[in-house]
Specification:
The chain is α/β, with parallel strands linked by helices and 166 residues long. The chain has helices at residues 20-29, 54-64, 80-87, 99-115, 135-143, 154-163; strands spanning 8-13, 35-41, 71-76, 91-95, 120-124. The relative contact order is 0.20. The structure holds adenosine-5'-diphosphate (ADP).
C-alpha cells in the first residue's frame, strides 16, 4: 500500500521473547498498514526482570524482521499514547488469541481512547497454529530444557540457547 498519508501502526508489547505468534501478527499488520513500529515497552510499573533486557529484545526483533523494511523496532517508556502520538501513529495493533485475552485488551483499548481520542486499536487474530503460544510459556519450556524451535525464529532460538547455556 502506498498513499500520500501513510498509515503507521504501532505494535506494543513485552516481546520477551518475540514468538512466531507475534511475528504472524506483525506481518499481517502490513496488509492493513503501510508501516509498522514494533514498540518494546520498558515496563517500569512492574518489577519483574525479564529473560532479555529491553535492548536485547529490540536487537533480536530487528534481526527477525531484517527482510522487511516496512517494520521498525523501538523501545519506549511511559504512556503508549504519548509514544504513538510522537511517532505519528494512530493505530495500535494487538493480538487476540482467545477469549481470555479479551477483557484486558478491551480495558486497555478504552483507557487509551480516554487518554488520546485519536487513537484506534485494531485486533488481529493469529494463525490457529500460534493461538496457544505465549512468551511466558516459551520461556518456561526452554528453561526446563524443552525444544522451542517451532515457536520462535532461529535468531531468538540461538539467543535463548545462549541464555540457558544450551
Ligand atoms: P504484553 O505484555 O503487552 O501482553 P506480549 O509481548 O505478551 O506483551 O504481547 C503483545 C501482544 O501480542 C498482545 O496483544 C498479545 O495478546 C499478543 N500476542 C502474544 N502472543 C501472541 C500469539 N501467539 N498470537 C497472537 N498474538 C499474540
Amino acid at each position: 500500500m502506498t498513499r500520500s498519508n501513510p498509515i503507521v501502526a504501532i505494535y506494543p508489547g513485552s516481546f520477551d521473547p518475540l514468538t512466531r505468534g507475534h511475528e504472524d501478527i506483525a506481518r499481517r499488520t502490513l496488509r492493513v498498514a503501510d508501516r509498522l513500529i514494533v514498540a518494546v515497552a520498558h515496563t517500569s510499573t512492574t518489577q519483574k526482570r525479564g529473560l532479555f533486557s529491553v535492548e536485547e529484545r529490540v536487537e533480536l526483533i530487528r534481526k527477525v524482521f531484517e527482510d522487511e523494511d516496512r517494520i521498525e523496532v523501538e523501545s519506549f517508556e511511559g504512556l503508549l499514547v504519548d509514544f504513538a502520538r510522537g511517532r505519528g501513529a494512530h493505530f495500535v495493533i494487538r493480538g487476540l488469541r482467545a477469549i481470555s485475552d479479551f477483557e484486558y485488551e478491551l480495558q486497555m483499548a478504552q483507557m487509551n481512547q480516554e487518554l488520546w481520542r485519536e487513537i484506534e486499536t485494531i485486533f488481529l487474530v493469529p494463525d490457529v497454529e500460534f493461538s496457544f503460544l505465549s512468551s511466558s510459556l516459551v520461556r518456561e519450556v526452554a528453561a526446563l530444557g524443552g525444544d522451542v524451535s517451532r515457536f520462535v525464529s532461529p535468531a531468538v532460538l540461538e539467543a535463548m540457547k545462549e541464555r540457558f547455556g544450551g
